[in-house]
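Inverse folding, one chain.
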């Protein structure tokens, strides 16, 4: 809970909100007048909110000299410049492949590199991680595969493209001895912004060990400047706006003093104008306030679930606390619980209960939760058995299934883009919020029962 502001500061911010209300009304009227002609809030990408694979395919086409953009090798040339790769005429015949197999790694699990660009002179792999975390030894395997593909004759590099400036989890960069492009380079690139995430800095990552390039937005902006096709230029403009909105830096350390004080004022206010003030505050920094409110709600869910589980099982759950309330580094708040009786492999859990707040439709932020399988190789028989067990316990066949998520669902009421929902979630002690939390935690407990039952009745793991 934020500390309340001194009385004089409260009076100042009360006057500030009164003035802001007038400005906001005037702005909204102006926006309505121009909306029909300019549609300033419209963005192609908000309509389908691309996932990781879709983003990889978009990047692949832009980098491909034979891509639909019709600009030849110009976009690829600018990308080479951004990551410090010497551009040569060989790039004219570059091939770009998505989901490229690590077929040269004998005796190891075959993986797929998101993008691989190859010419007769060099090869560059791009691991696209806008949101997801790394798998064990993933980058080392990619790096070794690229090294083998180069055959000692081609230059090679691996680009780690992260949404928020995160660094590879399992990779010790000292294992990669040489950092010149002739001998292989690990290049760090982020979607928007510069430098490393707060999480990376807190872990005292040896930042100087990494080669850091400019961000994706800068490259796309350079592409716009030289793009001759108007409709491609418009596509790039929408892509840039989408990335800036989706991967903006909104850590507490980056908030201005005004934004911090506005949040403090709203949290400390008990007036009837709270709802209006929350909506007005959205016009200053919508993400900062939304993150602050969401963080409190997710943390409350976290504590309530651990307490409920301990009370009903007399056991303690292991929770990945690095994920609790992380709103900027991972892109959205996320909780991950490792249950003590669920199977493990090589000391790592095979399944966990995960909650995320991330929407795939019209940029909505919705509460998602379900069973995350840490091995995609769960058999069809086991998958069907797990789904049946979960839906029998919950009493509703409302879940969905994907490769890594045998079963997941969403709470439709919890749309963090809705100002009215945010107003409700601000008061964690209200009866409505308590009801939300009790209902959601109750479902999680039933889901844990279902997975316990599945593990007991099936030879899995």
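Residues assigned per position:
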């Amino acid at each position: 809970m934020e500390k309340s502001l001194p009385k004089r500061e409260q009076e100042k911010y009360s006057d500030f909100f009164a003035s802001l209300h007038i400005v906001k009304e005037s702005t909204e009227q102006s926006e309505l007048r121009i909306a029909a002609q300019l549609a300033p809030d419209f963005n192609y990408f908000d309509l389908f909110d691309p996932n990781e694979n879709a983003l990889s395919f978009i990047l692949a086409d832009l980098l491909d000299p034979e891509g639909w953009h019709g600009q030849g090798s110009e976009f690829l040339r600018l990308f080479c410049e951004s990551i410090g790769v010497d551009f040569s005429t060989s790039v004219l015949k570059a091939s770009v492949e998505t989901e490229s197999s690590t077929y040269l790694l004998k005796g190891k699990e075959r993986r797929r590199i998101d993008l691989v660009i190859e010419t007769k002179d060099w090869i560059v792999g791009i691991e696209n991680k806008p949101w997801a975390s790394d798998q064990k030894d993933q980058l080392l395997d990619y790096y070794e595969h690229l090294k083998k593909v180069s055959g000692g004759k081609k230059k090679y590099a691996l680009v780690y493209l992260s949404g928020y400036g995160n660094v590879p989890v399992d990779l010790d960069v000292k294992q990669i001895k040489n950092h010149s492009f002739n001998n292989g380079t690990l290049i760090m690139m982020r979607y928007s912004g510069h430098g490393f995430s707060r999480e990376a800095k807190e872990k005292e990552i040896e930042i100087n060990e990494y080669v850091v390039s400019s961000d994706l937005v800068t490259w796309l902006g350079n592409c716009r400047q030289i793009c001759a096709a108007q409709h491609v230029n418009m596509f790039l403009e929408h892509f840039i706006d989408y990335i800036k909105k989706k991967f903006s830096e909104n850590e507490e350390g980056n908030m201005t003093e005004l934004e911090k004080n506005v949040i403090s004022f709203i949290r400390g206010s008990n007036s009837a104008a709270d709802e209006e003030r929350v909506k007005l505050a959205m016009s200053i920094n919508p993400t900062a306030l939304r993150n602050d409110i969401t963080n409190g709600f997710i943390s409350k869910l976290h504590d309530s679930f651990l307490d409920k589980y301990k009370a009903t099982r007399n056991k303690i759950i292991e929770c990945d606390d690095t994920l609790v309330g992380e709103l900027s580094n991972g892109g959205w708040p996320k909780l991950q619980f490792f249950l003590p009786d669920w199977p493990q492999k090589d000391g790592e859990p095979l399944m966990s209960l995960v909650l995320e707040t991330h929407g795939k439709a019209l940029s909505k932020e919705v509460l998602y939760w379900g069973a995350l399988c840490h091995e995609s190789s769960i058999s069809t028989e086991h998958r069907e058995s797990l789904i049946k067990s979960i839906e029998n316990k919950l009493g509703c066949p409302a879940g969905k299934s994907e490769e890594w998520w045998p079963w997941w669902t969403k709470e439709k009421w919890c749309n963090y883009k809705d100002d009215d929902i945010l107003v409700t979630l601000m008061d964690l002690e209200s009866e409505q919020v308590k009801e939300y939390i009790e209902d959601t935690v109750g479902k999680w407990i039933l889901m844990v029962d279902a997975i316990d039952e599945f593990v007991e009745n099936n030879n899995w793991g």
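The longest helix spans residues 7-38. The CA atoms of residues 160 and 323 lie 21 Å apart.
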